[in-house]
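Standup notes, protein team

Yesterday: finished cleaning the Rhizobium metallidurans set.
Today: Hydantoin racemase structure.
Blockers: none.

Input for Hydantoin racemase:
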Amino acid sequence: MRILIVNPNTTSSMTEKAATAARLVAASGTEIIAATSRMGPVSIEGHYDGALAIPGLLMELKERAGTYDAAVIACFDDTGLEAARSFADVPVLGLCESAVATAGFLAQRFTVVTTLERSRVLIDNLVHRYGMGDRAKVRASDIPVLELEDEASGAIGKLRAEIERALREDGAEAIVLGCAGMTDLARELREIYGVPVVDGVAAAVKQAEALVSLGLSTSKRGSYAPPLAKPFIGEMSRFTPMQAAG
């Protein structure tokens, strides 16, 4: 089984962090393939960044078609998830959807701790969309994404402080890390706080493995039907849909 981990931002160190987390949990017969978008923002913080990250994400899926059995989009905003599911004929998983589903198996109440306030609002909307709005709260820890790459930034202290507030004030029984850049911290934080700490990369990889093993993929009837063939003009001409990828 081959799972493609696509980082929709252009920071390769974040890709490697996600790939390492994926390989730690992948089954012995699973190959993790890591890809970094070659166009778009260096980090995804809000709607504008996310919109401009989608073409690069889709290009990686398109150019690698046929080399993977499932794909994971390594951004907690689930950037481009709907478009990717329409394009690909293999399962495509997003970190937020995978993480909150996993947390729901483990706790009645949980808190997602993310980076900036603009990301908190976006993720809160996703949590409600995924049916977990009554069980989950989303908190921002005031950390720019790229500060998670800098050990001297103080980002980890801010993250821990927000987790402690979640446990104290929200009655959280589990914590979800709301950024792919936090993926390497899950095990340590689990040991420190003694509650389940869910990393979206790990959750998505295991769910992708399950779907492939079950022989299941995204329905192509209705909303995720392949894009209709039509001209795309200008800079977007390279994305002209001809047929679904595989």
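Follow-up from PR in the comments: The chain has two domains: 2-94+202-239, 96-199.
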